[in-house]
Design brief:
- By secondary structure, the protein is mainly beta.
- It has a domain of about 90 residues: Cytochrome c-like domain (Cytochrome Bc1 Complex, Chain D, domain 2).
- It is about 10% helix and about 35% strand.
- The strands form eight sheets. A five-stranded antiparallel sheet has the order 1-8-7-6-5. A four-stranded antiparallel sheet has the order 4-3-2-33. Strands 9-10-11-12 form a four-stranded antiparallel sheet.
- Helix 2 crosses helix 6.
- The longest helix has 18 residues.
- The radius of gyration is 24 Å and the shape is globular.
- The N and C termini lie far apart (about 65 Å).
- The structure holds heme D.
Length: about 525
């Protein structure tokens, strides 16, 4: 009898799910905020490209209970469990068609802040070059911190789900912040006010700023494009349709600034090519002119006689991404698709010169370099193995494999400190932060400031005297440590603080930090 009831209710559940029309439910309950096309409105885009990247509660849980500190309401009283399940399944289905998102659509999305008026000097006493930006993903805000006193000077709302490092103009006055839905927000650090925002892609990866600070590149998965914006007014300068030599349209995994080369470097997800785009109007003749396809309303990029935005392709044996660059930007190491090797590419000659055995998904984008034993080494964490690999950047030999308490995500150091800080992001020891001696390459201390909480990502102040660590929880904190004594100096409550970014370290391309 019990088995019959169980079968019957299961049958009833399936019948409900089958009868629930998710498209109609979406139109009735979700479209007003998330867009009839699921590409976002006041709420974020509901497409698999974005949703599968989101950490946190399951979709059906979010629909049932709402999302704390956001406008997302709970639907437990409005919808049946089967309807919620059907909706959760519906938004995971890829869109039938990716709408055009070229120069015209991007331009139309521009929102200027009517309340913004530029200040002629900073409106505060603190050192403007020692400010920190702390991205609080818990409630989609950024806190601006005084890097000497560690007081919060401003806290502003960002677009939903900021990812990657904000990028600063070379003098450190303006900063650009990107969300996974492709919104780019411009903020004035002197006025402590948002300038405006624009949607440069539908699903984006990261941003990079040109050496002269005039151009901002946005790497997109959707559409397969690279958008270049003018940093002055957020207008669209170019939209590159990212098409490999064999005609394949490729996602852009990431875009990086190469300051010594005065160029952007692009990692292509779906093609065995690395792209280099000149940001120097007098670029080297190795850059070819780039003529666009006219698909999808992309603007036409004529070959530029001055060389600005001219393209150079570097062909590789296989698609590689997640790049670490040597500080002179002559070499990069990219991760091979099998997650077990690093491929070294010499950017000057444009070819692969070495391979490194790096099993367990090396996270090369988090790699940092420093001098140890008179040679320049780099280290990378591994997302699937409890180890750090240390590599000699002249001989491309593995110097050391350092065992850790679990797989890590981020590494940090500074010119003025003797230590490298390495988090343990995954597993039972995610509350641990290793401090490693740069010379001996040994762990000298393991900090555990909040038992059982995820403790991750470090950034130093401009002088390397303090290290700021995130307690990566909804009711989290940023903990300020004395970088020498490793003692706690201050604890600031924050909502799931992810990355922290010091203006000086970023604009000077300080050793030991991300760029
Ligand atoms: Fe990131 C930086 C890619 C998952 C938090 N991440 C970056 C960058 C890239 C990247 C290319 C460099 C951007 C830059 O600063 O210009 N991230 C990826 C992935 O491919 C991966 C593994 C899968 C994905 O979801 O796309 C991934 N990243 C995550 C997360 O799950 C994290 C932990 C939480 C989140 O916010 O999504 C996360 N990524 C970060 C942070 C940075 C970052 C905080 C900036 C680090 C820095 O110090 O500069």
């Amino acid at each position: 009898m019990i088995r019959f009831i169980a079968f019957f209710s299961c049958f009833l559940g399936l019948a409900w799910e089958a009868s629930a029309n998710p498209e109609a439910l979406y139109a009735e309950h979700c479209a007003a905020c998330h867009g009839a096309d699921r590409l976002g409105g006041t709420g974020p885009a509901l497409i698999p490209e974005t949703l599968k990247r989101m950490r946190g509660p399951k979709l059906s849980e979010v629909i049932t209970n709402g999302r704390v500190i956001t406008q997302m309401p709970a639907f437990s009283e409005v919808l049946k469990a089967e309807e919620i399940a059907a909706l959760a399944a519906f938004v995971k289905v890829p869109l039938k068609e990716i709408p055009d998102w070229g120069a015209e659509q991007i331009t139309e999305s521009l929102e200027r802040n009517a309340d913004y008026s530029p200040a002629s000097e900073p409106v505060f006493e603190a050192d403007p070059l020692n400010l920190f930006l702390v991205v609080e993903t818990g409630d989609h805000h950024v806190s601006v911190l005084d890097g000497d006193r560690f007081d919060v000077m401003d806290r502003f709302a960002t677009p939903f789900a900021v990812h990657g490092g904000p990028k600063f103009t070379p003098e450190g006055r303006f900063v650009f912040i990107m969300s996974r839905d492709g919104w780019v927000q411009k903020y004035d650090l002197w006025s402590l006010t948002e300038v405006g925002r624009i949607r440069a892609g539908l699903n984006s990866r990261n941003i990079a700023i040109s050496k002269d600070g005039k151009h901002l590149a946005v790497a997109n998965y959707l559409p397969r494009s690279l958008t270049i914006l003018s940093t002055a007014d957020l207008s669209v300068e170019r939209v590159f349709d990212v098409r490999a030599k064999d005609g394949t349209l490729s996602r852009v995994s990431a875009v990086y600034q190469a300051p010594q080369r005065d160029s952007f470097i692009l990692a292509l997800k779906d093609a065995p090519e690395i792209w280099e785009i000149a940001t120097d109007p007098g670029a080297d003749p190795v850059f070819e002119g780039y003529v666009h396809s006219h698909e999808k309303g992309m603007v036409e990029a004529l070959p530029s006689s001055e060389g600005l935005f001219a393209l150079r392709r570097i062909e590789t044996g296989e698609p590689i991404d997640d790049f670490f660059f040597t500080p002179d930007y002559r070499h990069l190491i990219g991760a091979a698709r099998d997650g077990a090797r690093g491929v070294v590419v010499n950017l000057n000659v444009g070819r692969e010169i070495a391979e490194l055995p790096l099993p367990g998904l090396p996270h090369l984008g988090s790699g940092i370099s420093w001098f140890s034993g008179g040679r320049r080494v780099m280290a990378t964490p591994h997302l699937k193995e409890a180890r750090l690999s240390v590599i000699d950047t002249d001989s491309w030999q593995l110097v050391k494999t350092l065992e850790t308490l679990g797989p890590g995500f981020f590494l940090r150091s500074h010119e003025n400190t003797d230590f490298v800080w390495a988090d343990v992001f995954f597993g039972p020891n995610r509350d641990a932060m290793h401090v490693i001696d740069k010379e001996s390459l040994e762990i000298v201390k393991t900090l555990r400031p909040v038992p059982d909480a995820t403790v991750a990502h470090v950034e130093f102040d401009r002088n390397g005297r303090h290290a700021l660590v995130s307690v990566w929880e909804q009711e989290g904190a940023v903990i300020v440590y004395d970088a020498k004594t490793l003692k706690e100096v201050k604890r600031l409550p924050m909502r799931k603080p992810s990355g922290k970014y010091n203006v000086w370290n970023k604009i000077t391309f300080s050793d030991g930090t991300s760029h």
